[in-house]
Amino acid sequence: xxxxxxxxxxxxxxxxxxxxxxxxxxxxxxxxxxxxxxxxxxxxxxxxxxxxxxxxxxxxxxxxxxxxxxxxxxxxxxxxxxxxxxxxxxxxxxxxxxxxxxxxxxxxxxxxxxxxxxxxxxxxxxxxxxxxxxxxxxxxxxxxxxxxxxxxxxxxxxxxxxxxxxxxxxxxxxxxxxxxxxxxxxxxxxxxxxxxxxxxxxxxxxxxxxxxxxxxxxxxxxxxxxxxxxxxxxxxxxxxxxxxxxxxxxxxxxxxxxxxxxxxxxxxxxxxxxxxxxxxxxxxxxxxxxxxxxxxxxxxxxxxxxxxxxxxxxxxxxxxxxxxxxxxxxx
Length: 331
Fold this sequence. Notes:
Blueprint: H1 3-24, H2 28-48, H3 70-80, H4 87-107, H5 113-125, H6 132-152, H7 158-198, H8 200-211, H9 243-254, H10 265-321
Helix pairs in contact: 1-2, 1-3, 2-3, 3-4, 4-7, 6-7, 7-8
């Protein structure tokens, strides 16, 4: 077995472990071991000269495409490590690897226009904010790609194998943007926590904010109605027909309880008992009718049985009177 074949086998094992840890979770030590193995694989990839700076994406062999996942999975593993003392440092390292993953794909022109827009926004501002439209589009694209991956995994073909890896790469791109946004939010929280522990003024200010009373609910005035047709407005048919009185009536009804009980508990219990009695009577009547039908079926069964017996007897008498072949006179 040559070095590249062995490298491919080891890397496949690492990818399976990474997917398992992503789905099921793992302890920090296993994640650290996984990161070290990925970094060892990175050195072997460089040593074997798997990639060339001048080659195009179409020139990369299909079996080598999976090596492109390496920086993504290292960044993902770093975000999964929960050791609080190194949490902030790990998030910074995770962002570095995830950005290297996106840089790599951008170099090979594997980012679509929407992904390029998000990537440019992050590079220019270093502050990644998902717009609602981007979140919806990413969710739809990921769902569609997941279905495509499931279908491609059922086909054993060289071209389909390359398409499968490309679809998996696209899913990891969308996951990368999610990770960058999540890491950024968590970094802001961790930095604020550090400020609270180090800066007494910030801590005092924060405590003062916590002790402030909850602000009262804002009361909004009802806007003055414009000159609009009122033929189907609530004002028609009400007992107050002036605008001021209608406004007061609507305000008074805002906090009135609705859907109040229309009967007492005793009345409700009596109604339930009556319903139960009616149901029992209906069930009893249905059982009697079913019994009557069954009896009629038994009588009909005896009648048709007698008719069949009589028909069989007539047929036997006819066969006795007419022997087989008696009517054939053409021999």
